[in-house]
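Onboarding guide, step 5: your first structure request.
Type a short instruction followed by the sequence, for example:

Predict the 3D structure of this protein.
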Amino acid sequence: MKQFITSIVILTLAMPVFSWNNHAGITYLILKDHWKNQQTPKVKVESLKSFLSKEKSSIQDTLTISEEWSLKQLPHLTKTADSLKFSKTTKDADLVISFYKALRVNPNHKAALYIQSVPKRTGNKLPLAELTTLKEKGKLVNETFLALQEGQMIGADEVLISATDEPDYDLDLYLFEDNGSEVGKVYGFGNQPFGNPAVEFSSQAPFHMGFYYEPGLIFALAGFLKKTYPEYRIHQFTELSNLAFRTGHPYWGYRFAGWALHYIQDLTQPYHSSVLPRVSAAKQIGVQLVSFVGYQSPKEDMIRFVSGRHTLIEEYQYYLIRNLIETKNWNHSVASSITEFSNHNSTKWQGIDFLRENVCKEAYNAGEPTDEQLENLEIPKYETLYEPTHPIHTILGSLLHNTSKHTRAYLDALKTN
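The system replies with structure tokens like these:
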């Protein structure tokens, strides 16, 4: 039994942890006509420190409400240590870091005033070093970020587009005890349950994935898969968004909402709601057992094939969405799947209590057919964009339609006043 659990741990270390690589681009397409029947709201840019300074007395009450909900929903979640809790007596110089520690996020996150330029345009560029602490910048080097000034007026759509990408910049890095950080020792999350704690981007995996529908046998043998935290983040940032709107800080209302949407969008990705789609519990156990007697290739093949399809769909999505925006190809089937909605194919946001039933179950159920269809394409990795009629667009369009549907539902339910 111990060998099996160890083997499952090794297997999950090899899992890719990226989700949608282009949250900003996807959200741009979603918002392209979201306010078509009214003028897009304009908001005044405000620093995080300014917001915190003005709402000191309400911040901890809001975080307490969120933690009470999260502790009931997530049995594995520990209480925030009293020493980390935000206080209305906090000195202005310490506000931002105190706030981050109360949230139990990376205290080095910068929360710069910026927008991600989608589509690209000219302006005062913000260096990546002022946006993220990531050592490996990945695809961020392809993007353009423009600096904003406090007091400047900006469209709510631009705030949301930028904010949906932001949690991937470092917000959830190094939060576990075995990540080698000081906060990992005091945040109370324990050792990283899955993903590779030695790999920078992988250290955020349990906050961006949610496994709720795996077979009972898998959970019985690998209970650590239950230790995921996206709901914790969604609730925190939704409550903060509500507070910001309620107290007259619409910039942070939309920005916190964008942060919450990042995790919701992640959970619409089948490979973030299912450990190994189309690999039954029996097969997972079988490949582990034969590996014990020296036959490693079945397990290695299983991981390689599933990881390859996971990586393929996310790589392809990134470059396709960029191309559709750059060429304004709104008639492409994938663009249409994101932008075209009617009453019969929309949904209502029923609250975070129903996230697992409405968002995660849909993504989990899409895992097996998606994985099978991708396998049948026989595309080993992303190399080029295909013609509009290629079947990969049907697969991707179906997945991103769900992402768009739940994003729209969340935005329609925002309490903006």
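Each response can be followed by summary notes, for example: Residues 1-14 have pLDDT under 50 and may be disordered.
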